[in-house]
Amino acid sequence: MTAAVDVQRYRETIGHFATGVAVVTAHGTEGPAGMTANALCSLSLDPLLLLVCFERSARTLPMVKQSERFAVNILRHEQHALSGVFASKAPEREKFQGVPWRLHEGAPVLEEALAWLVCELRETHAGGDHTICVGTVVDMHYRPKGQPLVWYQGRYGTLGDEVPAEANFPN
Ligand SMILES: Cc1cc2nc3c(=O)[nH]c(=O)nc-3n(C[C@H](O)[C@H](O)[C@H](O)COP(=O)(O)O)c2cc1C
């Protein structure tokens, strides 16, 4: 690897791609598990597919494989502290302490999230030091109001001003 394409430069460069922040959850035999994630995207509309990239060492990954279900809980901007908790290696029980959640279609959904999607695990693919999990969306929900938590250049943020309506993608 040359200096121009080392890991640090890659992180800094790809960090210019602003994303939302989600807590991806699964329910194992020991209870709920979850981790903060932004390496996720919508994959297909027919069928409805979503993908999430898990570090191979993520403790949530075996729970997803075991239960064959996962939920993507999209965070509100007020939930940055929750993002920190789920990005940690605290015991799973601690991560969920004081966090309202319920099991829905086999996956834990966070009651206070901006939106959630429950997926049935359809495929896994190796992707370098990550595992790509492709899920079929089985149910979803969003709040009518609320603002997303944003991740940009390694920091949390909120949405800035919207661009003028005429610049938006037509429906
Ligand atoms: C903003 C943010 C985004 C993250 N995105 C991902 C991701 O997409 N995939 C991943 O495996 N880890 C991601 N992480 C790191 C995990 O949250 C972290 O490794 C966590 O400790 C995993 O928890 P677990 O081992 O209990 O599953 C992210 C962390 C932060 C702060």
How is this structure best described in words?
By secondary structure, the chain is α+β, with helices and mostly antiparallel strands. The protein has a single domain (20-156), classed as Electron Transport, Fmn-binding Protein, Chain A (Pnp Oxidase, Chain A, Roll), CATH 2.30.110. Helix content is 16%, strand content 44%. The chain is built from 4 helices and 12 strands; from the N terminus they run αβββββαβααββββββ. It has helices at residues 7-14, 60-67, 80-86, 92-95; strands at residues 19-20, 22-28, 31-37, 40-45, 48-55, 69-74, 101-104, 107-110, 115-127, 130-142, 150-152, 155-157. The strands form 3 sheets. A 7-stranded antiparallel β-sheet has the order 3-2-6-9-10-5-4. Strands 1-11-12 form a 3-stranded antiparallel β-sheet, with no helix packed on it. Strand 2 (22-28) and strand 3 (31-37) form a beta hairpin. It is globular. It starts with 6 loop residues before the first helix and ends in a 14-residue tail after the last strand. The mean pLDDT is 95. The structure holds flavin mononucleotide.
